[in-house]
Amino acid sequence: MKNYPDISDILARKEARRREIRRLTFGEKIAMVEKMRERLAPLKRMREEQRERTKSSRPSS
Amino acid sequence: MAIKQTLEVINIMEADGIIGRYAIGGAVAAFNYIEPTVTEDLDVLVSFTELPDSPKSGLITLAPIFSYLKARGYSEHQKESLVIEGWPVQFLPVASDLDAEAIAQARDVEIGEGEGSVRTRILRAEHLVAMCLSVGRPKDLLRIAQFLEENVVDVPILCGLLRHHCLTEAWQAFCRRAGIADPCDIHRKP
After folding, report:
1. Is the pLDDT of residue A54 over 70?
2. Chain B contacts in chain A segment 13-52 (CB below 8 A)
3. Can you give the C-alpha Rg of chain B in angstroms?
4. Of B127, B89, B87, which is closest to residue B107 (Cα–Cα)?
5. Which of A18, A27, A36 is closest, CB to CB, to B112?
6. Is there a contact between B119 and B108 (Cβ–Cβ < 8 Å)?
7. How far apart, in whole angstroms, are the C-alpha atoms of residue A11 and residue B29?
8. ipTM exceeding 0.90?
């Protein structure tokens, strides 16, 4: 039987962080979302470019 | 890029009579109650009924909104949304009794503090849940589960809403699918 590490403390910390986030005010949560949007903008661009490439490489019927 | 500027523009639209009473809906409204995640756009539920020029036929056109915003330099469209100060905004006219009730009972909130703050309205948790249920996409059903898990819904109010808007059957189906006990069962009169 494999011996896996105990990660319960990591999961507990993650849950505690989520609880903290839930307690933020609406304005604080919105500020957080705006930061997330900025961070994820390059990934979004990449996804859109990939979609465009897939679309243009498909043979037209 | 900040949502505060976007909301300032929408507040001016309301003051200028381009739109009637409005409230934030969708994911951004949900963030007032549950853990936030990334969202692409801002859904704004808009009433037109109290405007003097509101159409009597029941047909609503968003053209006056778009021309008003275009005249102020906002003409970039992203899918169904119009970009205002960096946020794609989707204007959703009130299209049901549930929408009308939700907008009438939306709560006032202030984003930020002091001079830089902006006032707006957001839909109540119970209305957001009922709307998610009536739309019924997988992401809406997930959001309902989050509302329940985070215990931010007033269950008797929600159950009353579901009954009033004929959503009880859809709600029971959701509870069965999600594998949860129907919280309305306890609050249902015998």
Report:
1. yes
2. 18, 21-22, 26-27, 29-30, 32-34, 36-38, 40
3. 18
4. B127
5. A27
6. yes
7. 28
8. no
